[in-house]
Amino acid sequence: MALETSTTKSSPARKTAETPQPDAVVSFRHVAKSFGTKRVHSDITFDLRRGELLGLIGGSGAGKSVILRSLVGLEKPDHGEIFVGGQEISKLKELDLIEIRKQVAYVFQNGALFDSMSVFDNLAYALREHTTLDEEVIRGRVLGRLKDFGLAGNEGLFPANLSGGMQKRVGLARSIILQPSVVLYDEPTAGLDPYNTKRICDMMLKLKADGASAIFVTHDMPALFAVADRIAVLKNGRIHAIGTREEIEQQDPWVRRFIDGDEL
Q: Is the pLDDT of residue 242 over 90?
């Protein structure tokens, strides 16, 4: 597998990076984004392969979360194209984005639970809003998902009664209740102890085994190495390098120093 970098000159490897791959479920092509005078992305191009868990790393403020937000239409690129399941989404209207958000789940860093709803109602919300399932089926699906996530018996609690680790697991369970094809993880292990970090990583791997593709934004290098198939490194508004850990560390000394915490 050839390493792709933003500094690669015109060559067969670079040409491959410019062409959407047949197995891609998500594709960014020459995406640029600015906020006022601050340029965040200058030329983002990469593919997320079917069944892949892609780690996305970079310095603070590099625009990692902006990539995730762009994938669900919360941010609009200034230039370029974003494809989900072969459909270009960057110009879709809000109503049309609802269908995309059923396919692409966003797992927020803090869980983003509805404080006024119980754990059960947090998970049931999307099923009630976006399906025609009756309450008995919804109850079975919610309780089954809570059991899968080690949360059985907590359905009557409210977010304020949950630990940080439990809130993150409930948030993850809620995000994938509609069985999306793509899951976006925005630093899901941030602030967690090693035990809960491992539980989140195990859940990510289980969802991958069940067929979900995913992008995992993180600063947690051990968690990244435990779950990611490939790693994309964001630098200076571009995907600086993408490949397995071994590929990018062997072929790019800057990436190796960044991963080791020696350079931003």
A: yes
Answer yes or no: CATH 3.40.50.300 is held by domain 49-74+93-259. yes
Sign of the Cα pseudo-torsion (242, 184, 207, 151, in order): positive
For residue 189, pLDDT over 70 is answered with yes
Residue 213 in contact with residue 53, Cβ under 8 Å?
Answer: yes
pTM for the model: 0.86
C-beta of residue 90 within 8 angstroms of C-beta of residue 77 = yes
Nearest-angstrom CA–CA distance, 112 and 159:
10
What pLDDT score was predicted for residue 239? 96
Q: Domain boundaries in the chain?
A: 49-74+93-259
Q: Helices 164-175 & 194-209, crossing angle to 10 degrees? A: 10
Six token digits for residue 258: 């960044």
pLDDT given for residue 7 in this prediction: 43
pLDDT tens digit sequence for 64-112: 999 999 999 999 999 999 999 989 999 999 989 988 988 999 998 776 8
**CA-CA distance, 219 to 189, in Å (whole number)?**
9
